[in-house]
């Protein structure tokens, strides 16, 4: 039986402690001396439950030059993740059992993180007819989240049916809130900067109007709705009001919306082009406090790798999207108060426990319970690192943080007791091939 | 000055230097039998036009040739429309050709900045999307100076589709830098949101703005904007925002009437007004050459070998 002891980590909620892992599960905590165990020195490191990403674009099948399930899984492990939810906008679209099973299988074979496929809401993401949500839920991939992300489920009747239908399979609709008529031709946030730069704006009301509508639909139908990448102060206000009324609404925010603003567009470098776009400082502040107070439940990366042709070009021609998996924890720490006096319990809540609960990933996001799968991350709270696109594990390099120094480094990540990352480096994974 | 991309980047000194140099160019060439100066002999100027604009391209070409530069016209397709050769590939080609200056016109804002990151050449923005058209603004300012003298404290009213106008954007910043008051008039649907952050007054009533305008600049209205629902009909547009004779008469007598061309006669400007001696439309074309000569000269010589 393989045994590992993690020595002297600062374990959430219980101070300095050792963790004994055997056969992939946590079996004992406290001060431990186990003779036949591999020892991991975690002195000065913080142990967090493995991070869970609700919103990852892995690009496979279809865009393997930008990312594959393997490379995306490696990026995730490096970022401290033990599970990622893979968005459905692949080619072919993940709207059938065959595609979601393929993605799950690629994830198992890669072996770096648990890859949980998200199913499409509508066939082909066309917004017309429901995808086979029940079949996907029953498949080997056990799909529980459904999203047309990249596109909004705009048709209110389709959204109604999706919410009703998802409930019957214990599922959840994750909405990309964007009233597309209001964002036609848009290139960036609509505001003083877009007016100045001569770019067609993406008005915040395109997001808030859909969020308001879907909150009302969810309330009317007594259904659950989740909002992807919430980007504005007003969105957070609507969600707060909905929660107060008891509507079953959850929401995520992306790291980039917690730290960057539309001013980043000023040099027309498409690495800053993202959908929804970078907003204003006032939104950043509001999103940070909404994340802190729980109005926004989770940090989700919207990791969106793109090849150089699609990013090293003119702004209008560039695809929207940014890398996120390897930098998310650092940005979340920064947004939740900075590395000096960070509340690790809150970080764990927003990056692991709550997203795991939203996605229905029972093996993830728990607090070192005896008997639970050992999915965890060791973080160096005093670490700092400078981001370079070509040093990231993703196949793409479109990080908006290139050259920035970020706080907190991931020292190690364990998936079912096996280190996927040790001393900041990827290990040979224990995938099934 | 290495590049001329955005009038907002110009200091008052630089703007005045450009205008002064334009005047020098006009003097230097006007006295000559062959209207040509040797200043840029051996230099290569590439006109890189992703959008057709014979007027602007010809003006730049003429300006470069009068400075004895070699001119290469490079018509290209936009990669956002046409998959295949990317903007960056095109930039690498121009670099291989040894372009000293690249005059670029593109349908997307920010293309000049992208080229400047890839190419060692000087970049001149000849119109990028809705963002800017700095030599047009400079020729407008030059023309205004000819008619009005200094621009300090003068009120220039720009009328029409501000939202989609790179000419308006470039003029707002340049005229402001030169000390003028800029007033923007047009339908609210054709004003950018948050326009109050611009150094300009904004209004919707053309009649009210006429009597105290020292100059008026009519913008071209694209007929597709009506189909896009920005205004109800051409009739309503011309009634509310068109410059007809009655309105022209309410301007101060010496106030010039400008238009970047080409005009929609009968829509934003009545024919009788367009053809009146108060318009500067022909001067603007001539002045465009002096201004472009000045820009090419200053960017490529750093103005150091007068
Ligand atoms: Zn999305």
The 3D shape of chain B can be described as: globular
Strand portion of chain B: 5-15%
Structural class of chain B: alpha/beta
- Mean model confidence by pLDDT of chain A: 96
Given the structure, what is the number of helices of chain B? 12
**Spans of chain B of 5+ residues with little confidence (pLDDT < 50)?**
none
Runs of chain A with pLDDT <50, length 5+? none
Distance between the termini of chain B: 16 Å
Q: Give the total of beta strands of chain A.
A: 19
Which oligomerization state do the chains in this entry correspond to? heterodimer
* Ligand set: zinc ion
| Largest sheet, strands/sense/barrel of chain A | 9 strands, mixed
Helix proportion of chain B:
40-55%
Give the terminus-to-terminus CA distance of chain A: 21 Å
Q: Based on DSSP secondary structure assignment, what is the total number of beta strands of chain B? A: 9
The rough form of chain A would be described as globular
Outline of the structure:
Chain A has 433 residues and is an alpha/beta fold. Helix content of chain A is 27%, strand content 22%.
Keywords:
heterodimer; A: 433 residues; alpha/beta; 9-stranded mixed sheet; 5-stranded parallel sheet; 10 helices; B: 306 residues; 12 helices; binds zinc ion
Describe this structure in words.
The complex is a heterodimer of chains A (433) and B (306). Chain A has 433 residues and is of the alpha/beta class. Chain A has helices spanning 69-78, 97-110, 133-138, 156-168, 192-197, 204-221, 233-244, 281-293, 328-335, 344-359, and strands at 3-11, 15-22, 25-30, 38-41, 46-49, 51-56, 81-86, 114-117, 145-146, 172-175, 188-189, 201-202, 225-227, 249-253, 298-299, 376-386, 405-415, 418-422, 425-426. In chain A, strands 1, 2, 3, 4, 5, 16, 17, 18 and 19 form a nine-stranded mixed β-sheet that branches. Chain A has a five-stranded parallel β-sheet with strand order 9-10-13-14-15. Chain A is globular and about 65 Å long. The two termini of chain A are 21 Å apart. Chain B is α/β, with parallel strands linked by helices. Chain B has helices at 12-30, 54-66, 87-96, 111-118, 134-148, 166-177, 206-209, 224-227, 234-241, 245-249, 271-274, 281-301; strands at 44-49, 70-75, 101-106, 122-128, 155-159, 181-185, 201-203, 215-218, 257-258. In chain B, strand 5 (155-159), helix 6 (166-177) and strand 6 form a beta-alpha-beta unit. The longest helix of chain B has 21 residues, at 281-301. Chain B is globular. Chain B starts with 11 loop residues before the first helix and ends in a 5-residue tail after the last helix. The A-B interface holds A 187, 190-192, 194-201, 203, 267-269, 309, 312-317 and B 8, 78-80, 86-88, 106-111, 113-114, 117, 128-132, 166, 169, 192-195, 197-198. The complex binds zinc ion. Residues 149-150, 176, 228-229 of chain A line the site of zinc ion.
């Amino acid at each position: 039986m393989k045994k590992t002891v993690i020595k002297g980590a600062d374990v959430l909620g219980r101070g300095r402690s050792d963790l004994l892992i055997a056969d992939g599960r946590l079996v004992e905590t406290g001060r431990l001396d186990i003779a036949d165990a591999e020892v991991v020195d975690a002195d000065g490191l913080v142990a967090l439950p493995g991070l869970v990403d609700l919103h990852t674009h892995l690009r496979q099948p279809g865009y393997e030059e930008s990312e594959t399930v393997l490379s995306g899984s490696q990026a995730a492990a490096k970022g401290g993740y033990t599970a990622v939810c893979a968005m459905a906008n692949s080619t072919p679209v993940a709207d059938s059992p065959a595609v979601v099973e393929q993605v799950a299988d690629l994830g198992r074979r890669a072996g770096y993180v648990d890859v949980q496929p998200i199913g499409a809401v509508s066939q082909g993401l066309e917004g017309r007819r429901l995808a086979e949500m029940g079949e996907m839920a029953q498949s080997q991939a056990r799909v529980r989240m459904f999203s047309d992300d990249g596109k909004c489920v705009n048709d209110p009747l389709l959204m109604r049916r999706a919410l009703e239908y998802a409930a019957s399979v214990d599922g959840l609709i994750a909405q990309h809130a964007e009233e597309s008529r209001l964002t036609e031709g848009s290139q960036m946030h609509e505001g003083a900067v877009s007016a100045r730069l001569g770019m067609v704006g993406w008005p915040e009301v395109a997001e808030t109007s859909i969020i308001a509508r879907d909150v009302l639909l969810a309330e009317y139908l007594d259904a659950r709705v989740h909002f992807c990448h919430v980007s504005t102060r007003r969105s957070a206000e609507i969600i707060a009001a909905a929660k107060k009324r008891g509507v079953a609404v959850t929401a995520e925010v992306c790291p980039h919306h917690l730290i960057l603003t539309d001013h980043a567009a000023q040099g027309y470098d498409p690495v800053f082009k993202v959908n929804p776009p970078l907003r204003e400082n006032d939104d950043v502040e509001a999103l940070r406090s909404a994340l802190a107070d729980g109005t926004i439940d989770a940090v989700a990366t919207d990791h969106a790798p793109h090849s150089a042709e699609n990013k090293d070009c003119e702004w209008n021609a560039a695809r929207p999207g940014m890398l996120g998996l390897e930098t998310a924890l650092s940005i979340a720490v920064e947004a939740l108060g900075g590395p000096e006096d960070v509340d690790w319990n809150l970080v764990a809540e927003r990056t692991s426990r709550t997203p795991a609960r939203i996605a229905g990933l029972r093996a993830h996001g728990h607090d070192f319970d005896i008997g639970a799968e050992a999915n965890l991350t060791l973080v160096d709270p005093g670490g700092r690192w400078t981001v370079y696109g070509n040093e990231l594990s993703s196949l793409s390099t479109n990080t908006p943080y290139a050259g920035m120094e970020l706080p907190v480094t991931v020292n190690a990540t364990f998936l079912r007791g096996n280190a996927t990352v040790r001393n900041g480096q990827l290990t040979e994974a224990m995938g099934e091939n | 000055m290495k590049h001329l991309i955005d009038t907002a980047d110009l200091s008052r000194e630089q703007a005045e230097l450009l205008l002064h140099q334009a005047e020098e160019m006009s003097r230097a060439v006007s006295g000559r039998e062959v209207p040509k100066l040797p200043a840029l002999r051996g230099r290569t100027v590439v006109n890189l036009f992703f959008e057709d604009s014979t007027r602007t391209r010809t003006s730049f070409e003429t300006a470069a040739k009068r400075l004895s530069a070699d001119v290469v016209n490079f018509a290209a397709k936009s990669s956002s429309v046409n998959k295949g050769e990317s903007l960056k590939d095109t930039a690498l080609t121009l670099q291989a050709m040894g372009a000293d200056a690249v005059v670029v016109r593109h349908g997307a804002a920010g293309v000049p900045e992208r080229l400047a990151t890839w190419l060692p050449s000087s970049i001149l923005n000849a119109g990028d999307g809705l963002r800017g058209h700095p030599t047009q603004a400079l020729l407008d300012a030059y023309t205004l100076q000819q008619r009005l003298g200094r621009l300090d404290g003068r009120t220039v009213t720009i009328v029409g589709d501000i939202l989609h106008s790179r000419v308006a954007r470039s003029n707002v910043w340049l005229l402001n830098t030169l000390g003028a008051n800029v007033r923007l008039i047009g339908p609210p649907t054709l004003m950018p949101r948050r326009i109050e952050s611009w150094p300009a007054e904004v209004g919707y009533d053309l009649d009210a703005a006429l009597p105290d305008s020292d100059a008026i600049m009519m913008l071209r209205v694209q007929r597709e904007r009506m189909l896009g629902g920005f205004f109800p009909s051409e009739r309503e547009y011309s009634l509310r925002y068109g410059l007809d004779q009655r309105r022209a008469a309410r301007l101060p007598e010496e106030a010039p009437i400008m238009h970047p061309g080409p005009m929609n006669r009968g829509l934003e400007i009545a024919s009788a007004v367009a053809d009146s001696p108060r318009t500067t439309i022909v001067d603007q074309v001539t002045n465009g050459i002096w201004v472009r000569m000045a820009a090419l000269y200053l960017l490529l010589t750093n103005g150091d070998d007068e």
